[in-house]
Amino acid sequence: MDKKKTRLIALVNIGLVLAFVVVVLGAFTRLVDAGLGCPDWPGCYGFLTVPDGHAEVAQAQARFPETLVEAEKAWAEMIHRYFAGALGLLILGIAWLATRLSRESSEFRSSSIAIYCLGLLVLVICQAAFGMWTVTLKLWPQIVTAHLLGGFATLSLLWVIRLKLNRHGISSDAALAAHTLSTNSGIRRHARLGLAVLIVQIALGGWTTSNYAALACPDFPTCQNEYWPEMDIGQGFDVFQTLGPNYLGGLMSSQARIAIHVMHRTGAVLTLLVLLLLGVRLLQLDDYPAQSRVAVKFMLTLLAGQLALGIGNVLFSVPLWVATMHNGVGALLLLSVISVNSRTGSAESQD
Asked: Which of the residues are catalytic?
């Protein structure tokens, strides 16, 4: 039992690293406009790797005459697929091992970890479908945004499973944090609100990038030299827009993209205020344990970094490394807020 649990923890740890890499590679792929670097799925121009050499390139071009073979973009897309595929196989192993542990131990079964792992497997299968539709529907923003959210959800669920494995024998620090907050339902509600607001903000970020609206406001703190510029919110958030033919580069009007960008900025301000206030409230608790304080301070550090990267995207016209880091730090911020919720939420079971 202990060996299998140790093996499961190791697999989940590897999965966390892989999932984070997949999220970052997904962002990189979008940012270098390589989402259609391979016009088919799961291969690339009918090959398992990027076509190389005159004969393969000629064959690929004959199969997809409307799409020019660009090796750099194709490799960006395929490397992302390779890592995503490896993550999928690993999650299959995690679900299998967790199911075995659940059958062998009633204590492990009561923790519901196996159910979470099976849910994770279903999620990653859905992610594969969204990955296929991203290509076949030619970067339809709804699918691209859903695919991005699915990646964040996969990483988050792996983190939740890791936290539950830690609490399968809850740490004294987490138990003390739960006891401290057992009578403070206001902070628990605040933590949940912070998580909800952050998820909405991540979705707004996905909608911004999938509609190529990151450069709609080239100035800061104003947008088009106004604090509330002319914008078309209706078109910007029309989730029932028709398909295609090809969304590479975006199809929305300038006013619609401005609306998306402004709403993302507005969401950033709201997220900043909610999470900053949450951190201050937690740090002001006299008997809040040291390790939990470190987790809160880490969350606030990531929040500050994410704000700086977002402003940097605007001031420096979305440089590749800044925009990629913006996605990566956003993922880490989400995990940190989940951790804070895990510690505050633990109190409920002891109320």
From this structure: 77
